Amino acid sequence: MGGANGAERKDLRVIGKPHRKVDAASKVTGQTKYADDLVLPRMLYTKILRSTVPHGRILKLDTSKAESHPGVKLVLLGKDLPIPYGALPVSEDEHPLAIGKVRMMGDPVAAVAAVDEDVATEALDLIDVEYELLPAISSIQAALDTPEPRIHEYGEYGNIHRRQAYEFGDVEVGFAEADFIREDVTFYEGSTHLALEQHASVAQFGHDGKLTLWTCTQDPHYLHRSLAKVLGLPQNHVRVIATTNGGGFGGKCDPFAHEIIVSKLAMMTGRPVKICLTREEVFYCHRGRHPVLMSTKTGFKKDGTITAMHHRTFLDGGAYGGHGVASTFYTGVLQPTTYKIKRYKFEAVRVFTNKAPCGPKRGHGTPQPRFAQEIQMDKIAEQLGLDPAEMRKKHLIPPNSLTVNWLRVGTMGLGKCIDKVVEGSNWKERFRKLPYGKGIGLACSGYMTGAGTPIYWNSMPHSGVQLKLDRSGGATVFCGSAEIGQGSDSILAYIVAEVLGIDPFDIRVVTADTDLTPVDLGSYSSRVTLMTGNAAIQAAERAKGMLIQAVSAKLEVPADRLVFADRRVFDSENPEKGVTFVEAVWLAEAKFGTLGTVGSYKPAPAPGKFKGSGVGPSPAYSYTAAVAEVEVNPETGIVVVPRVWIAHDIGQCINPVLVMGQIEGSVYMGLGEALMEEMTYRGNRNVVHKFPSFLEYKSPTTMEMCDVITYLIEDQDSNGPFGAKEAGQGPQLPVAPAIANAIYDAVGVRIDEVPITPDKVLKAIRAKAKGQEGRYGPTVFPRCDMPASIFVPTPEEGGDGKAVERQPVLA
Amino acid sequence: MLRLPKFRYLQPKSVAEAVRMVSDGGPDALFVAGGTDLYPNMKRRQQVPKVVIGLAQLKQLRTTKGKPAQGMVLGAGLTLTEVAEDRRIQHAYPVVSKAAELISTPLLRNMGSIGGNLLLDTRCNYYDQNYEWRKGINFCMKKDGQICWVAPSSPRCWAVQSSDSAPVMVAIGAQVKLISSSGERLLPVAELYNDDGIHHLNKRPDELLTEIHLPPTNGWRATYWKLRRRGSFDFPVLGVATCLRLTGDGTVEHAKIVLGGIGSCPIEATLSEKAIIGKRLTEETVHDAAEAAYSPVKPLDNTDFATYWRKHMARYYVACTLRELGGLPQGLPHPETENSVPALRVFSSGPFS
Ligand SMILES: Cc1cc2nc3c(=O)[nH]c(=O)nc-3n(C[C@H](O)[C@H](O)[C@H](O)COP(=O)(O)OP(=O)(O)OC[C@H]3O[C@@H](n4cnc5c(N)ncnc54)[C@H](O)[C@@H]3O)c2cc1C
Ligand code: SF4
After folding, report:
1. I need a surface site. Which of A352, A406, B105, B141 has the fewest CB within 10 A?
2. Could you give the residue ranges of the DSSP H alpha helices within A385-413?
3. Does residue B79's CB lie within 6 angstroms of at least one atom of ligand 1?
4. For a pocket test of ligand 1, which of B108, B227, B353 has the largest count of ligand atoms closer than 8 A to its C-beta?
5. CA–CA separation, B170 vs B190, rounded Å?
């Protein structure tokens, strides 16, 4: 790509303007077709029989009665789909339907295809299953204490899925340099995405031996690969069309059992097959926030300089791997992106439990450690008698630098973000000065704009765009990216419109169809705007180049004087002299033949060269600072958040309204995780999910939503399209710790875990009143044998990004 | 998605026809008014009537009669929105319109009826689940199963009476009119409920609830405080309805304090009542009444929120209702500051609203 990716452009006409979304009208008028809106002739319906035990061996599975039930066409079992799959190649531990064993309540066991949903549902009760119950594991501690029986036969040992240990510089040396050391144990409860749309899919198998799957997936490309693998079809005989997602938030990233099941059923019955999950089943698909128990030991000097940090995490992974190995990395790798940490050690353990599998939810693995770090920063500032905003500002990672763990930071606007929220919230007049019961708190964060490496190893582009110009003056953009409500379709239109000087609504956008569109890796890791945007710029610039040649020859105007704007191509020195965009296309088609260009994008290689260095690097990091205001009723422990001030370093807004929408949505989700959301199970009752429903899984409504005052900090990053960075995930990160810090300001108690429910606040207030520690949170951190750390000298120490054999510290 | 089981739907044209239809239908027939309780239950297969008799078209059930001085009569089929927005009710029985307004969401209140609200099925986190979920725990005593998961050694069901209007109607002494093919009766609302999660209603299935008789407005005042997680949607996990009559000098001469959402029926906090009867409402007497509400409240782990906290909140909410009716300031002075601490936005509409 190179250069400023369009950032040198001064008078932007489309970029940075609050244009409507290209799909807005069809959404608000109900025209958009979601997967469940699709109906095909002769379509069958599927229901899945799910495990009624949390952990067990299948002793008997008799489907004969169900098979002979009128209207039932086929009953599918695990043995029909023997090939395992999973989001990450390192943990392909799932089968669409259980083979011999179930690992959680709700695990798919059999699937019925029938003429309608009622018949399929009736047939489920006719399937006779007997299980041999195995001991079930429902917590991190229980997983560590119960090596047998193993939930999976792979992994580290016992029920430990994964251990990771890294040390960047010798932390013991760092702790020795510190004036103070503190260690805080914190817990971040799991939560789910709660997208409004329940997962749905329709599959059709053609007489040409080709399969088409319409499904609400965020990652059609990865699903395409998994489908072909499990179904034993050549990849070029599988077509995945991602229908518009009615919300994703990471919950539709994994390949799902039901997607494979309807595909197989379509192949076997020769009829289109549909499924739409119930809300309860969506809770079982989950892949949401991991519950993470953390210990953060930090050495610091009197001025707040962090000399060393030893950060340890335990993740409750649930029953399957999914994206869990990546999640495990993310509970530590982004810690050093905000403040300078001189030496950093990070150890993480992911365990298997008999609960719905966790995975990527907005912020993927990072809101938990960010919570730990930001509430600890507040405690450090308090301990040192420093203002937490000032202290943070003093130790920011400089722009264009390398972090202790070899991440390359480009633009870094966190200082400006802090200034904005401090000013907006009147921080200096209010922090520690409000009456008892009212408080404000600050927290910050950094987040990636796209993962630097793909999920499976390859050296091809991460995103591709094809652009077709036709004689009508129309432009069609083809890209594999999936619209999940975030506006990725619109981004493509805005960018191509900007480059070609036409209107975004002149452009057709065709996305997320593996037959028609070039690969984009998917809507995850906040990668889409940056990567598809850069690919779109390249494709559009190439098309523009062709138009310029043709128009320049025709008008006899030098190429560098031609301007594209207002659907015209004209001479900048004599604007009257020009052609319409349609004429330009005609001239170019006459000169070059049918017009089409491509563009692609691949991130630059990461500076870290050690094993595992692929997780964390990103073309650009976004930064956010937030101040939350709370009102705490000390008699009840009830916390109300009236207002959040939030400043986000976005690089450049492609569309400020969409950016604000992402930020407000992030505040909303952060508020829910901070105050009420929790995936809870009844460990002593068959590990059932306590309340897999929209009513009883508590998530804020509009009534609980706070006012949000948003500040956008624009400082174009040379890696982003027109300088843009991400907005979809980073802004969520500071919300929960800002609220926790504000509660301390209000009533002087520390709540070191989320959700911060009134009973916890009240307990802490009462403990404090009795002269005990005014705190609620975990007190013990489990023990687990860890492998020796991968030891990497820091950039400051003159390392080269490679791991080294550790030199024993001299006694 | 979740689908309704198949059933026959009947639409009577009169109360008499409705009553006849239900007695013809026998145990397989159920009335439906707004359906906001029954239909979700049917989707979850908690209730599977073969015949459903729709009441929404019965004009007789949608009238408001009488004068406050003699006691107004509300048709059982009035929607919650109608009850909440009716000027006469708002004026004469503000506690009734307030309780109605605190129920569920605006959309559900447009459908749900006040009668259906009084007859709401009891609720429990083990029971209000899909068929598949309940199958995973082998069901429970209330439907299809043998034991109670909340209290496995208990012979009874502890599902929670979760209607917002029930404690209010009990506290103010309202009555209900029940009509069946064998006649009609007027029953104090307090006697409508049993302390049993399964047989929670003292009403035969063939009896149609037609009217709610509100008491004459002769000087009593009442309020209702509802505890729930969010400012909309949520069922009460505690509701305190308090009705007092004070003499000219502020002495409490009559008191009813009724707790909802905390047991299988509305629970009268008699010790709390005793603590204030014959006395004036001061911080001290309010405190005594609140303390007395603590022990009768035995929340179990089958609703939202930690049980000990709900128990604590009963004390707090009883105090809040009494302070409101006694004109005392909400909130206590805090030792760490000179200021009095505001009871932050918990006024009756739910903690987070
Ligand atoms: C998301 C949600 C939130 C809710 N939140 C609350 C809440 O906060 N507080 C609350 O109190 N309720 C709540 N509800 C429950 C319900 O909406 C209300 O209780 C409503 O008033 C029920 O009235 P209905 O007319 O819809 O009852 P229906 O569902 O029609 O009937 C309920 C029961 O009463 C019987 N019945 C109805 N009318 C008569 C009659 N005239 N004679 C004899 N039997 C009759 C029916 O057979 C049925 O058994 C909620 C419901 C939902 C779905
Ligand atoms: S209280 Fe017990 S018996 Fe009653 S619904 Fe709940 S679990 Fe079932």
Report:
1. B105
2. 388-394
3. no
4. B108
5. 5
Q: Indicate which atom in ligand 1 lies nearest the CA of residue B77.
A: 41
Place of tokens 């999936």: A482
Can you tell me which atom of ligand 2 is nearest the CA of B300? 1
Strand partners for B179: B184, B208
From the CA of B76, give the closest atom in ligand 1.
Answer: 41
pLDDT tens digits for B248-278?
A: 999 999 999 999 999 999 999 999 999 999 9
Q: How far apart are CA A588 and CA A486, in angstroms?
A: 35
Report the distance separating Cα B187 and Cα B173, nearest Å: 10
Tell me: the pLDDT tens digits for A617-639? 999 999 999 999 999 999 999 99
Q: Does domain B220-334 have CATH number 3.40.50.10860?
A: no
How far is ligand 2, taken at its centre, from the CA of residue B112, in Å? 25
For A289-319, give one letter per residue: b (16+ CB within 10 A) or e: bbbbbbbbbbbbeeebbbbbbbbbbbbbbbb
Interface of B with A in 125-154 (CB under 8 A): 125-126, 128-130, 132-133, 135-137, 149
Total residue length of chain B:
353
d(CA B101, nearest CA chain A) in Å: 15
Q: How far is the CA of B146 from the centre of ligand 2 (A)?
A: 10
Mean residue pLDDT across chain B = 93
CA A784 vs. chain centroid, Å, equals 28
Cα angle value A207/A211/A213 (rounded, 5°) = 135
The A residues from 179 to 208 touching B (CB cutoff 8 Å) are 198
Domain with CATH 3.30.390.50 in chain B: 220-334
Calpha distance B353→B347 (Å, rounded): 9
Strands of the sheet with A463-469, listed across from one edge: A507-511, A475-479, A463-469, A595-601
Q: Are A367 and A444 in contact (CB under 8 A)?
A: no
- Mutate-to-test residue for ligand 2 from B46, B121, B127, B307, highest number of ligand atoms within 8 A of CB: B127
Q: Determine whether the shortest distance from the Cβ of B32 to ligand 2 is under 6 A.
A: no
Q: 3-class DSSP state for residue A277?
A: coil
Please choose, from the candidates A221, A150, A389, A251, the residue with its C-alpha nearest in 3D space to the C-alpha of residue A679. Answer: A251
Q: Is any ligand 1 atom within 6 A of the Cβ of residue B104?
A: yes
Spatial contact of A801 and A608, defined as CB atoms under 8 Å apart: yes
Query: A794 is written with which tokens?
Result: 């820091």
Contact A762 B129 (CB under 8 A): no
Structure tokens that stand for A207 in this block? 């007489």
* Separation of alpha carbons A157 and A149, rounded Å: 11
Mutate to test the pocket of ligand 1, among B43, B104, B229 (most ligand atoms within 8 A of CB): B104
CA of B112 to the centre of ligand 1 (A): 6
Q: Which domains does chain A have, with CATH numbers?
A: 24-32+460-601 (3.30.365.10), 35-134+193-285 (3.90.1170.50), 292-453+608-776 (3.30.365.10)
Q: Report the residue from B135, B233, B345 with minimal CB separation from A640.
A: B345
Q: What angle do CA A118, A698, A711 make, to 5 degrees?
A: 120
Q: Does pLDDT of A420 surpass 50?
A: yes
Backbone angles phi, psi at A204, to 5 degrees: -140, 135
**Reported CATH class of domain B59-119+160-213:** alpha beta
Interface predicted TM-score (ipTM): 0.94
Cβ-Cβ pairs closer than 8 A, A with B, add up to 122
| pLDDT per position as a tens digit, A476-516 | 999 999 999 999 999 999 999 999 999 999 999 999 999 99
Does the global pTM surpass 0.90? yes
Tokens of B51: 């015949």
Residue A50: HSE in the Cβ half-sphere, 13 Å Cα cutoff:
29
The answer to whether the Cβ–Cβ distance between A436 and B337 falls below 8 Å is yes
